[in-house]
What does this fold into?
Amino acid sequence: MDKITYLTLFCAAVFATQGMAQTSTTPFNVLKSSKTSVKESDLNRKSNGKVTADGKALQFSGPSVRLVVHTGPDDDMMSYRIHGLRNPTLYVKPGATMEVTFGNTDGDMFHNIRFGANQPPFAAGTTDAGTVGSDSLPHKTEKSVFAQKLTIKAPTQPGTYSYFCTIKGHAPAGMYGLIVVR
Ligand SMILES: [Cu+2]
It folds into this structure.
């Protein structure tokens, strides 16, 4: 084998291993992602889940989950709103396809939404490791609300997962909710 062939094969092997490592360490997987900007009113659209009797969770009974998420109102910025609920628990089916629209309606802070196997309590230094989700989006301006649309495949393994913000200190301050795959 000449040097170039060897190097090509070596690089291909390294890339292949990295690809495998990524899919095996993130329970959620991103199928599609694009950035956009939306009107604030677009983020009040409903999700296709049913609110549970206690008003704290959304139940998705089918294979398609539509989630519209934005950051909390001014007096409760370290939280998410989905379907008008604060940090609701999401009950989803194993392997469900989740169409997520996330918009940052905060007036002065960056936020993101990440999906992973992490469990509360969250440490101040919770990172993106093992998660997928949006980038950190800038705060809104007078003209637009920065948003990201993601298509995410839920874990096939039943269990408790979460969604949260990985900007330093945000998840410990309350910016998270649970996702129960069952
Ligand atoms: Cu945040």
Summary: The longest helix spans residues 3-25.
